[in-house]
Amino acid sequence: MILKEAIEKEFNNLSKGQQKAAKYLLDHPKDFAVKSAGEIGKRIGVSETTVIRFCYSIQLSGYSELQKMVRKQLLKANSTLGQYFTSKVELAEKPEFLAGVMEKDCLHIRETIENISQDDFDVLVERLIKTKNVYVTGLRSSFAAASWLSFTLGVVRGNAKLIRPDTDDLLLTVTEMDKDATFIAISFDRYMKDTIKLAELAKKQGAFVIGITDSAIAPIKEHADLLFQIHSSEKSTIDAAPALFSFLNAVIAGVSIQDRDRFQARKEQYEKLESEHFFIQPGGKLD
To answer: How far is CA 257 from CA 125, 243, 264, in A?
Structure first.
């Protein structure tokens, strides 16, 4: 059993007290490794019985077995970059390194397909078609995906803005949001506080919040109306990138096909531009 996966699988079935224990375990595994169930309960404001029942809910025999698994799995885990490098070293020991890496990417995409509900995806596409304004944010490893999504949504439907805390007036941007706005937060481990705070503020303004993340119990879950988990067998956020971009491409495709009249109108707009002033053809030269 992989402890993190077991918690994610059962999380929605846990009581509120047990969910507190689950979140605290993932954030502070060292405390579980050395403290008693009673001490953990006091720390998070639940009873010792609740902590023990949490163990039973994830199919463990009790708190002692949980502690053993924490020490073995969570405390000895490599860093994200360490896990990424280790997985690639294993592939490098086999022939056809390029094919091996790309086949792993295909595996992650297939796992993501299994993770995502078609009904939730349809709701997402419909929301992006009907909403007035779309706001997208993502920091550090999530920034490239957020930038691509906001740019491409701007092309196919318009009124899409990338929020950058380092340059934007966040207060002004958030006050522009209302029930007709959609806020998309891309948030992967390590989860940036700015992204979570923006999602919280957008929610308070009445915006529809969509979370795209790497875990069913990621912090963004608390504020998301829709949550999409991009699965990766490894913890590394680098390995999650191909599946993430594949999912975002499916979103763009869905919006384009389901709202084809607007897409066609925007396409014709683009084609009217004097493109030679902006672009150079293959083999061409600058004047």
So the answer is: 10, 21, 10
pLDDT digits (tens, 9 = 90+) for 207-247: 999 999 987 778 898 899 999 988 764 567 788 889 999 99
CATH of domain 108-272: 3.40.50.10490
The residue extents of the domains of the chain are 3-74, 108-272
Of the CA atoms within 13 Å of residue 123, those in its CB half-sphere come to 13
Q: Do residues 8 and 216 lie in contact, with contact meaning Cβ atoms separated by under 8 Å?
A: yes
Which residues touch 122 (CB under 8 Å, ≥6 apart)? 254
Mind giving me the DSSP string for 85-125?
A: HHHHHHHHTSS-HHHHHHHHHHHHHHHHHHHS-HHHHHHHH
Contact 194, 200 (CB under 8 A): no
Rg of the chain over Cα atoms, rounded to whole angstroms, equals 22
pLDDT one-digit tens code per residue, 23-79: 889 888 888 888 899 999 999 999 999 999 999 999 999 999 998 888 777 655 555
Assign 179 to helix, strand or coil: coil
Considering only CA atoms, which of 67, 82, 73, 7 is closest in space to residue 33? 67
- Which class does domain 3-74 fall in? mainly alpha
User: pTM of this prediction?
Assistant: 0.74
Kind and range of the H or E run holding 226: strand 226-229
